Amino acid sequence: MALSEFAKSGFQRLLAPVVDLLIRKGVTPNTVTTFGTVMTIVGGGFYARGHIVLAGWIVGLSAICDLIDGSVARKSGKTSVFGAFYDSTLDRVADGAVLGGLALYFARNGVHHDIPNYMSTPMVSVILLGIIGSFLTSYTRARAEGLGIDAQVGMLPRPERIVLLSAPQAFFGLALGGWVLMVICILLTVTAWITVIQRVAYVYRVTAAEDSGRSAKAGSIPRPRSSPVPADAYDARGPLVDGVAMATDRMVRNAEEADSRLADVAAPADGPARRTEAGHPPPFDRAR
Fold it and tell me: What is the pLDDT of residues 175-209, one digit of tens each?
């Protein structure tokens, strides 16, 4: 269920004079967004106090700000990335304020006794699940957009949720012993979680198709064959290895010569014999 484009354009045409007045007065889009959020928080406070009809009217009228802030931004040429971020952030604050106020109202049923006592605790649980579902509804869409996926699917987008949280309460209050309000809260919670599941399933289908396509493309790329390495290639030495080997050989020869000199000093009687074997005449045979 989604608001038709015809209904949205009808509301925008109806509120066009208000938008033009705000632009002439120099009101910024962020100011409109902030005012609407503050009014929604006030409405949530009245929900918590048990003033259901008044809270419904306040929340419903504050939704007008959420509807016209984008028009003010476009007509005044003040659209910005931060404005979109700021609007989405305050939307979460407004949702939490309204649902939180309803949770406090049901939790205080022992004071005002507006609904059957046996429904107090179950309705608090329903509202808490509704808060989580409402936040997940927005988070799944935002996370999908971060992945480049437009996940605008689901049963009950935010405009419809605001209508259900305001219009029936404004006109009917606690009709039928509060069952109208309780049924609406249950409906909001169930549809919020259905929307979360729908968006998760949609993102899964899109990403699964992309992942399978990448896997198939990667599998079709031929891998280069490795050529056999000649056995003598492992025996080839690079310049660095050769240098190390030469330095090692020099160290070994120097050590052998040092050992030979030490041996001459330790056994001088054997020196003439070694010199004779080496081709040098004994000292007593040399010409004087």
Answer: 888 899 999 999 999 999 999 999 999 999 999 88
Q: Where are the alpha helices (DSSP H) in 77-178?
A: 81-107, 109-112, 120-146, 158-172
197 neighbors 161 (Cβ within 8 angstroms): no
Could you read off the pLDDT of 17-56 as tens digits, one per residue? 888 898 998 889 999 999 999 999 999 999 999 899 999 9
Which among 107, 187, 109 is positioned nearest to 155, based on CA atoms?
187
Q: Is the pTM of this model over 0.70?
A: no
How far is residue 183's CA from residue 84's CA, in Å, rounded to a whole number? 33
Catalytic residue among 66, 69, 87, 91: 91
User: CA separation (Å) from 82 to 17, 30, 263?
Assistant: 26, 9, 90
Rounded to 5 degrees, φ, ψ at 17 are: -60, -35
91 given a catalytic annotation: yes
- Quick: pLDDT tens for 258-274: 555 555 544 444 444 44
Q: What is the DSSP letter of 222?
A: P
- Domains of the chain with CATH codes: 5-209 (1.20.120.1760), 239-285 (no CATH)
Please give the single-letter amino acid code of residue 56: G
Residue 238 is classified by DSSP as -
Residue 233 has pLDDT above 50, yes or no: no
Taking CB atoms within 8 Å and a gap of at least 24, the contacts of 25-28 are: 27/72, 28/72, 28/76, 28/78
